[in-house]
Design brief:
Order of helices and strands: EHHHEHHEHHEHHEEHHHEEHHEHEEEH
Strand order of the largest sheet: 1-2-3-4-5-7-9-10
Radius of gyration: 21 Å
Oligomer: single chain
CATH topology: TIM Barrel
CATH architecture: Alpha-Beta Barrel
Distance between the termini: 19 Å
Number of helices: 16
Shape: globular
Largest sheet: 8 strands, parallel, barrel
CATH class: Alpha Beta
CATH superfamily: Glycosidases
Length: 477
């Protein structure tokens, strides 16, 4: 039947090094950008590149420093993922575990061995690793000494890092992603690219030049990956979610298209291999000059990605009407007008399963390459009952409706590799640094201040997702 999930569909979950591992200076690891993000009022100014710091701020709580201690507990966590029946686990390598400063002449063996051990543990349960090279993760030394991705030299440092891990793990990892949510560079520049803005700098110029460097680095990683691991699948990754026009006013419709293109720009280059015409016009009209080296355009064209990875949490709405613009939702990094037809999460993120199907179709129509849903989930406040169980029916409802629409997208003809829902175990929130914003099927006893036993416990959704995987997406009720 056409509406079935394909055989070998990769069901699983997705985590990131900086939100799970902890052990932020153990095993020879260097400081990374996320290690500088405290909770509280200083977090957002740092994330946007407007507050300069190269050390963790004194007197502030930095949730990544311990996170959920996956570094020491990965065997326990992977065993739980295996119990759910995971076929794949998306995770990231911390660049600073491999090259603590980013520009080191030799890699850190302790860091390489840690990921060897993790991949071996996954293999024990026949779980395929899907590995992101850069998930909001730049060694702080590269930010301080080179200006991070402002500097062309980062392309070479990244290529060396990518080549090192491809060579080391060529027999253990076949699915790779270059940059996590690469379009986040425009919204949280320090998180996305380690950018700190100096007084008087043209922010747009800095961001798009940094974007060019990341796009070249991504193409070089694709080239190296295909040479070192001939059967590898190397993808890009977009923070997706289509933008609806609030009205049928052509000005609103055009604005929605422009908002989507702001993100598609990155994937257009990575999947099609060239800068689109609308981007060239945007650069010209905004007096932006992208410095390219000879050979950049040929490199981008020759080394496009094999598949499109994307995250989907919510859709967005835009309008050119100043009165309508006043009705904004909170919580979502991208900003959106409230959609009167839809409900929102406790963090103001619009819940729109149909938008998931629309987004998948939109991406497949545009690129004609396989898609991989590498993030999707509901952040919510979970309260264990008197028996210690979290009865998260709201999460099951959210995921069920999204899985239904994913099945419809497959019926539409969209080619999907897999689905790794975000945060199969409770982790530190990337946007707010909170623990109370929970996504997992597995509860972790830790609060926003870092207090708790870190003990793991299954939520109601654990058994639900297990049945979904067992039935290859048929049993979702």
């Amino acid at each position: 039947m056409a509406n079935q999930f394909p055989e070998g569909f990769l069901w699983g979950g997705a985590i990131a090094a900086n939100q799970t591992e902890g052990a932020y200076l153990e095993g020879g690891k260097g400081l990374t950008t996320v290690d500088l993000l405290p909770t509280g009022e200083k977090r957002y100014p740092i994330m946007t590149g407007n507050l300069e710091t190269y050390e963790p701020l004194e007197g502030e709580f930095h949730p990544s420093h311990r996170a959920i201690d996956f570094y020491h507990r990965y065997k326990e966590d992977i065993a739980l993922f295996a119990e759910m029946g995971f076929k794949a686990l998306r995770l990231s390598i911390s660049w600073a575990r491999i090259f603590p400063n980013g520009d080191d002449s030799e890699p850190n063996e302790a860091g390489l061995q840690f990921y060897d051990d993790v991949f071996d543990e996954l293999k024990k349960y026949d779980i395929k690793p899907v590995v992101t090279l850069a998930h909001f993760d730049v060694p702080v030394h590269l930010v301080k000494e080179y200006g991070s991705w402002k500097n062309r030299q980062l392309v070479d440092f990244f290529e060396k890092y990518a080549t090192t891990v491809f060579t080391r793990y060529k027999d253990k990892v076949k699915y790779w992603l270059t940059f996590n949510e690469i379009n986040m560079l425009l919204h949280l520049p320090f998180v996305g690219a380690g950018l700190i803005f100096k007084d008087g700098e043209d922010k747009k110029q800095v961001m798009y030049q940094a974007a060019h460097h990341q796009l070249v680095a991504s193409a070089k990683a694709v080239k190296a990956g295909h040479e070192i691991i001939p059967d590898a699948q190397i993808g890009c990754m977009l923070a997706a979610g289509m933008t609806y026009s609030y009205s049928s006013n052509p000005e609103d419709v055009f604005d929605a298209m422009e908002k989507d293109r702001e993100s598609f720009f990155f994937i257009d280059v990575q999947a099609r291999g060239e800068y689109p015409g609308y981007a060239k016009r945007f650069f010209e009209e905004n007096d932006l000059t992208i410095q390219m080296e000879p050979g950049d355009e040929a490199l981008l064209k020759a080394h496009t990605v094999d598949y499109i990875g994307f995250s989907y949490y919510s859709s967005r709405v835009t309008s050119t009407d100043p009165k309508v613009q006043e009705n904004k939702t909170g919580g979502n990094v991208f900003g959106s007008i409230t959609n009167p037809y839809l409900k929102a999460s406790e963090w103001g993120w619009t819940i729109d399963p149909k938008g998931f199907r629309i987004t998948a179709n939109q991406l497949y129509d545009r690129y004609q390459k396989p898609l991989f849903v590498v993030e999707n989930g509901l952040g919510a406040i979970d309260e264990p009952n008197e028996n210690g169980l979290v009865e998260d029916d709201y999460r099951i409802d959210y995921l069920r409706e999204h899985v239904k629409e994913m099945r419809e997208a497959i019926k539409d003809g969209v080619e999907l590799i897999g689905y790794t829902s975000w945060g199969p175990i409770d982790i530190v929130s990337a946007s707010t640094g909170e623990m109370k914003k929970r996504y997992g099927y597995i509860y972790v006893d830790r609060d926003n201040q870092g207090k708790g036993t870190l003990q793991r416990g299954k939520k109601k959704s654990f058994d639900w997702y297990k049945k979904v995987i067992e039935s290859n997406g048929h049993n979702i009720d």
